[in-house]
Records
---
Amino acid sequence: MATNPQSPPPRGPQLAPRMHVPRKKQFPWPVVALIAAGLLLLAIVAKMPTTPKKVQPPSAAQIPPQPTPGQVQLSSVQLTPSPVGDALNLQAMLHNNGSTEITGVEVQANFKGANGQNVGTEVTKAQIVGKDNATAQDLTISPIKPNETAPVRLRFDHYPSAWNKQMPELVVTQVTGTKP
């Protein structure tokens, strides 16, 4: 059926033709967010600390001379029993033969029995004796300078009961000091 262009318009409600309006393109936020996250990740990776560079250890020429047990000399050693308990004090003069200040001396005492056999061993640190001969302080507080002699006390808290009460054999096992 053909329509006549001059026919009267149909009656009743009519739909208006829709106009096709092109949509505006939205701003590409997802793309911007991905780029920003990538830049942030790149900045974090660039600023992260790297592993430390391997430092070469000092050569033998750079290590300061260290004190040795041969650097110290004990003389005028006297036994003095402690008034209480089974402790033993040895009073001695300590001479520093080295070129560094001595800040610590560790001494091992080998106690002998009646037949000369070793019945016990004890290790202690030397302490500087004060002028009143009653007080003693650590060598780190009062170091012994090179070519200097100072009175020291070696306190052994427990000696073996089988000890023959003779002077124990003393061995300097460790010496600590400062730079020259």
---
Amino acid sequence: MPDSASINARFCSQCGQAVTVLDASFCKECGAPLAGTLWLSQEISWRPVTAFFLSLVPGLGQFYKGRRGAAIVWFFGVTFAYQASPPLGFLLHLICAGNAAFAGAIREEAVARSARANASRALPAAARRPQ
């Protein structure tokens, strides 16, 4: 049975060397920036792009994903917002479509890894500040 490290192996796109550090941002051999990890989960049963475009009708993307209650809330919320203020309705409609496309689709570990990488890059600058 192959180990999980060989199944999920990463390689540098510039020199082809295997990347052995899980959170690496740069290749240790050539220094080239490494491509980001997959942000979208492979375990979802729906398509984010389809959910986004179905949300042209507010809530239909959530309904497609099986989130019936959220679909009803989004439909009435966006409809009310359009009646109250068209710019507010449009903004809420965009948020609705983004929520339908990406809620549950973005891998939490990819976001956490990105946040850790950004924090580690910001740390030396913060450490240099005088107290």
---
Amino acid sequence: MTKKLACVLTALLSICVSAVENTESTEAALALTPINNMFDAMRNHDAKKFLAQFTQHAILERAKIDNQIITSDLNKFSEFITTTKKHLDERTFNINVNISENLASAWVPFAFYLDGKLSHCGVNSFQLIKQQEQWKIRYLIDNSYSGDCEDFIKQHAKQS
């Protein structure tokens, strides 16, 4: 009887742990929705969809190799997305998402292709907030890797 009870309790514990992991992975996928939508909007030159992924007063920055931080205007960047004739394609891999209730952070290595040619690579760091049951990007800072992007891609793709 004790062995049966232990087996039942072990099975229930496994089910509970699995349910928590599934819930966490589902929420992580939901937190990635505005990030994926943002990249899709860039590919489709859709400024309205691009801006819809961000909170009001969201911040977009780049950490330069010389330690300068450059702040970009989201509206101006969205205008560029709409007006450029070039194909913008940011490809991501090995994404890491951490969530605590209504806050999430995503570490997103990327390779950026301009008209099908590798332009640069680096890491995006997203801070997201869940507002009215919807994840939005509050802050995005990225950097541009100073080394060989092909090596960067191989290194991060292996970890996926």
